[in-house]
Structure formats: structure tokens, C-alpha cells
Design a protein that fits this description.
- By secondary structure, the protein is an alpha+beta fold.
- It is about 35% helix and about 15% strand.
- The strands form two sheets. Strands 1, 2, 3, 4, 5 and 8 form a six-stranded antiparallel sheet that branches.
- A hairpin with a 2-residue loop joins strand 2 and strand 3.
- Helix 2 runs antiparallel to helix 5.
- The termini are far apart.
Length: about 300
């Protein structure tokens, strides 16, 4: 029995995903500490903003006032752009097996990396394949593949205005991530439906209090950008306007791709640094030479 489903594409209006923005990362991109992102959780009234501003000491009050202005500018810009641009998503549920440190996704071999340093003395060396049923059991499992992206033209809005263009850029990044959040929620509850009764607040969603994980390409659990070429084979990035560069980078830059795992024990981890032996093993499984593989894994290679 093949559990693989057809590729599904979705189109979100900006207001449909804006509520899923994690403003902590938006403010981080502008050099603000996480406590300043709390402005996004306030009621939209002058008295609430004044009370929040006065909660800061004199040394931080100017920075807090700057955070208020930045957030207001961001919300105003989102409103102006809504209805003119969209965020797009593609996903697919795939029949999956774990084969050592590889996944088999609809028959496609998808190599992965395993941790080489424990996070604590009694912890295992984790690999994402640990969260999928082994091939030796002969019972198929499921893994999701996904990608989200903004309309390419959205990234060029206000290109003539340095502040406005940077504001658009950071909002685009957050919108792509917010779409991944909304998509994952829909898949968990309604499509894959392994958590049909999930009822979480926005804070709980952003704290990742749900069952399962969705590691993104380029992030610590899935650091190899070249696997974007494999994901492209599985969900056809062109359907939502994503193209890949020779280095596996996605264009538009405000794009997210990755895998979805449902296992109750699945959790995020960092692969960390790998040595030459693991590099050679991974390159062989990936079908590349070691020299071809190195640029994709530069951030994980030991000096």
C-alpha cells in the first residue's frame, strides 16, 4: 500500500498568515532583544502602549519607543500590501521508511546526518531518521515534505527606500515562516490528522507545544542545503514559484522548506560539527564527491 499523496498547493492572503508571525524573530532581525517583542501582544490602544512603555527603566525607554514605532510601521505596511500579494505553500505526505541514517521517501533516498556530540552524557546521538519506522519492520510510515514562499514581486516592494525595503524584507521572511506554521497546523489536525483534537493558543504554537516537528532545510537538524534538490523532486518547487540556485538556495529568499515528522518523541536538535569520516560517508550516500559536498556543509565542518 502506497501512502504517498498528491502534491497540494495553497495560496494564503497576507492577513491569513500574519497572525502566525513570531515577532521575536522579526525584532531580532532589527537588533532588539526578545523583551521588546512583547509590544506585539498588547491591545492596540494608546493606554496599553503607554503603560508598557512606562514599564521600562529610563535607560531602555527610548529603545522601547523605537520598538513601538517599528511594530506600527510593520502592521501598517502589512495592511497596505494585503490583497495585492500572497504567500504560497506546497506539501505532500510521503510513504516513508528509515534505513540507517537515510530516509526512503516514496522510494527516493534522502540522506541525513547524525549528531556526533551528545547534548548530555546519557543522551543518544540523534538523527531525524530515528523518528521514522525502520525499513526492516516492513511497515510503512509517513513523513511530510513542504515549502512556503512569498510572491517574488513582494520582495522588491519599496526597493528605492532603504528603511522601507528592509522592513519589507524582514516581513517577507516572517510571512514565509508564518505560512509554514499555519500549514503545519492544518496538516496535523486536518490532513495527516494525527492530532485532530489539538487546541493550542498562539503562544503554545509558537512555543512548539504540539506533537511532531518540522525541521527546515539549513537549520541545525537539517543543515545540508543540497537536500533542497531532493525536496524539489518530491514536491516540485516551481508550482509555487520557487527556483533553486546552484548552491541549493531558494529564490525568492523569503522561502522555507523542510520535512514534517509526527512521532511523539520527535524533537529538534543540532547535528553540530562533523568530522572527515562522517563527511565522506554522507557524501557517498548523497552521491557527491567530498569536494562537491563541502560547500553545502561548510557550517558543520570541523576546522
Amino acid at each position: 500500500m502506497n501512502l504517498t499523496t498528491p502534491i497540494t498547493t495553497l495560496r494564503y492572503e497576507l492577513h491569513e498568515v500574519a497572525e502566525y508571525i513570531n515577532w521575536i524573530y522579526f525584532f531580532h532581525a532589527w537588533g532588539f532583544q526578545p523583551r521588546f517583542a512583547a509590544i506585539a501582544g498588547l491591545h492596540d490602544c494608546d493606554s496599553c502602549r503607554t503603560q508598557w512603555l512606562n514599564s521600562f527603566g529610563e535607560a531602555d525607554r527610548d529603545k522601547a519607543a523605537e520598538a513601538i514605532r517599528l511594530y506600527q510601521d510593520a502592521r501598517r505596511l502589512l495592511g497596505e500590501l494585503d490583497g495585492h500579494y500572497a504567500v504560497r505553500a506546497a506539501y505532500r505526505l510521503l510513504e516513508a521508511y528509515a534505513d540507517g541514517d537515510n530516509l526512503l521517501l516514496d522510494g527516493l533516498r534522502f540522506p541525513l546526518l547524525r549528531q556526533q556530540t551528545r547534548q548530555r552524557p546519557d543522551a543518544p546521538f540523534l538523527c531525524l531518521s530515528d523518528f521514522v519506522r525502520p525499513l526492516s519492520q516492513g511497515i510503512p510510515d509517513t513523513v511530510g515534505a513542504f515549502a512556503t514562499t512569498v510572491d517574488a514581486a513582494l520582495e522588491e516592494v519599496l526597493a528605492h527606500d532603504d528603511y522601507g525595503h528592509l522592513l519589507v524584507k524582514t516581513l517577507c521572511e516572517r510571512l514565509a515562516e508564518a505560512a509554514a506554521e499555519k500549514l503545519h497546523l492544518t496538516v496535523r489536525r486536518d490532513v495527516w490528522a494525527y492530532a485532530p483534537d489539538e487546541q493550542l493558543s498562539l503562544r503554545q504554537l509558537l512555543n512548539e507545544d504540539y506533537q511532531g516537528i518540522r525541521p527546515a532545510v539549513g537549520y541545525p537538524s537539517l543543515p545540508d542545503l543540497s537536500v533542497n534538490f531532493l525536496l524539489d523532486e518530491l514536491i516540485d518547487f516551481r508550482r509555487i514559484g520557487i527556483r533553486l540556485t546552484e548552491t541549493g538556495m531558494m529564490q525568492p529568499a523569503a522561502s522555507v522548506s523542510g520535512l514534517m515528522f509526527a512521532h511523539p518523541a520527535a524533537r529538534y536538535f543540532a547535528v553540530g560539527c562533523i568530522d572527515e569520516e562522517q563527511l565522506a560517508d554522507y557524501a557517498a550516500r548523497r552521491g557527491f564527491s567530498v569536494e562537491r559536498m563541502k560547500p553545502f556543509l561548510r557550517s558543520t565542518l570541523r576546522n
